[in-house]
Design brief:
Layout: E1 5-11, H1 18-26, E2 33-39, H2 45-51, E3 59-63, H3 71-79, E4 86-89, E5 95-96, H4 100-108, E6 113-121, E7 127-131, E8 137-139, H5 144-147, E9 156-158, H6 174-182, E10 189-200, H7 213-228, H8 236-262, H9 268-278, E11 286-287
Parallel strand pairs: 1-2, 1-4, 2-3, 6-10
Antiparallel strand pairs: 4-9, 5-10, 6-7, 6-9, 8-10, 8-11
Helix pairs in contact: 7-8, 8-9
Length: 289
């Protein structure tokens, strides 16, 4: 059985981070992967990585077809070409823990969507906090974000059972919007509570840069609108669960500026989490087994 996983990595001004990111793929205990590295900045990353001593036939080099077209367009370029049965997302400044693909591919034998806990780090890989750690559990659209309250580009999926394309009209939250698409045909996901993905909080990134609140609020509001108008075709209880999370997250966005001013360096996750605990549902998925 083919267990190839296509790892999709858009690259825009990624020279400072891409070597470390690619090295984390090369170190995977599951060796049957393809890394689709898509330049969105005109950089010849094949030559750049070769100069760093990295040459591997499993790395495929593409172009987004322009400059600064955005991560969604860039990811879709690869999604339109890959033939591997499984796919995964890896941003050009994040890293995979060595066993991530091995454990996720095992899980994909029984589940169409797999997410993992995060190890949230600074740009110099200093640990900040974990997100979504704990027992492995089955999640649904309505329970997922109550467990994995931060970014969702750590996901892997079986393209034969769930697939989609990223929405280039949205400035932020495209990973959650994509996940909602996958849930259309795969009603549950498996969340691995072991932190297997290093999520780097970069000051200049789309989700962590200065003055991103406007884009975040607009995108969360749009996903909420789509949910409530039946865009994803999800059951009512699942819509209610995800909508409740987004409503609280929007409230947190409105208060974050003042909270950050009072507590410089405050992570949005640390700001949001106490608000979620006040409204936390009684069930956050079910334990595996």
């Amino acid at each position: 059985m083919d267990q190839t996983v296509a790892i999709i990595t858009p690259a825009w001004n990624a020279q400072a981070t891409i070597v470390t990111t690619v090295q984390s793929v090369l170190a995977q205990t599951h060796a049957n992967w393809q890394l689709w590295l898509i330049a969105d900045d005109g950089v010849d990353y094949e030559t750049f990585l070769a100069q760093a001593g990295i040459r591997d036939p499993r790395i495929r080099y593409l172009s987004s077809g322009g400059i600064g077209r955005g991560a969604s367009v860039t990811r879709n370029v690869a999604l339109d070409q890959i033939t591997a049965p499984y796919a995964a997302i890896l941003d050009a400044d994040d890293r995979l823990k060595p066993s991530k693909l091995e454990l996720a591919i095992q899980a994909l034998q029984d589940h169409a969507i797999v997410t993992t806990a995060l190890d949230v780090m600074t740009e110099d890989f200093t640990h900040l906090r974990l997100v979504g750690q704990g027992a492995d559990r089955i999640l649904t659209p309505g329970t997922h974000k109550w467990v994995s309250l931060s970014m969702d580009s750590m996901l892997l999926w079986d393209r034969g059972r769930a697939d989609g394309r990223y929405d280039p009209t949205m400035s932020n939250m495209t990973d959650l919007e994509f996940l909602a698409q996958l849930y259309r045909t795969a009603p549950v996901s498996l969340h691995l509570g072991t932190p297997l993905h290093d999520y780097i909080k970069r000051r200049t990134s789309m989700s962590n840069g200065k003055n991103v609140a406007v884009g975040m609020i607009a995108s969360k509001t749009e996903i909420l609108r789509r949910l409530q108008t039946g865009h994803y075709g999800l059951p009512a209880e699942e819509v209610d669960g995800l909508a409740a999370f987004l409503t609280i997250s929007l409230q947190a966005e409105a208060l974050y500026g003042a909270a950050l001013a009072a507590n410089p360096g405050l992570l949005f996750e640390d700001h949001l989490e106490p608000m979620l605990k006040l409204k936390r549902p009684t069930a956050e998925g079910r334990p595996l087994g």
